[in-house]
């Protein structure tokens, strides 16, 4: 059976709609984030509301300097947020979420992850409409990373799709994520900030309702959740791994150097990618005077490239070279990307 057919028959395709709406929720606001951050930190320095995008050659020197310094402040806070999200919160909580979802099912954690995604959007709304400090955006973003909607989605696919079709199915479902990254910023580029916030909240609400009413539970516990006697015994774990005994999901890192290396690569790549993206958007503001519309177009181009890879290139490479070589190609491409930047 083809992966597409199995995705449709298993009802896992409904997650594509959920992921699309969920991604649109924050994708629409992405073009505005650099501007909001820069204006906030500049305003904090000057002591009054400042719009750095409205600077002219006749603007006060204090305001101009505050706007220049605000770019570095934005990158610093975004980088620290990425670090704590990827290396602390995600590393510690996501394995626990995996264990808990095995016990309680995937849907509760899909719903919790979607609700968590609304927290940073709510902070942006309160900042724009009520003047709440934007500093709250950063802990809200860190807290959101505690339950990874993407990770739970992939677990859902693993439950629903047979092993031979899982990798192509992952690509199909993640293509909807890329579609949201493509469409969301482009929508944001052509609407006002108020409209962007409202559309973001609507998209998050739609993804929540779709999950609650149309996505069935995928994980079914058997009467005996024990290790199959046909599988080989696990190797004994190093004594130092006992410190992870209360977090069962982390024990996988102690079974194989491959798992440990992949986890380290994923964590480092996640931190670097988000930090580089924040730095790039701030750089475009400083060097080329990019505004929200320009940022939205850039992010839309990145989304188009991601969609192309997930829906077309990834399945072809997987069939041609296999999982291990595909992993090497991906890591090499990421390294070259960072080098070029």
Features:
single chain, mainly alpha, 11 helices, globular
Helix content: over 70%
Please work out how many helical segments DSSP would assign. 11
**What general form does the structure show?**
globular
Strand segment tally:
0
pLDDT averaged over residues: 79
Helix vs. strand class: mainly alpha
List segments where confidence is low: pLDDT < 50 over at least 5 consecutive residues.
Answer: 222-246
Structure commentary:
With 341 residues, the protein is mainly alpha-helical. 74% of the residues lie in helices and 0% in strands. The protein contains 11 helices and no strands. It has helices spanning 3-9, 14-27, 33-46, 61-104, 107-130, 137-144, 149-160, 163-189, 193-214, 257-288, 292-340. Helix 4 (61-104) packs antiparallel against helix 10. 33% of the residues are buried. Residues 222-246 have low confidence and may be disordered.
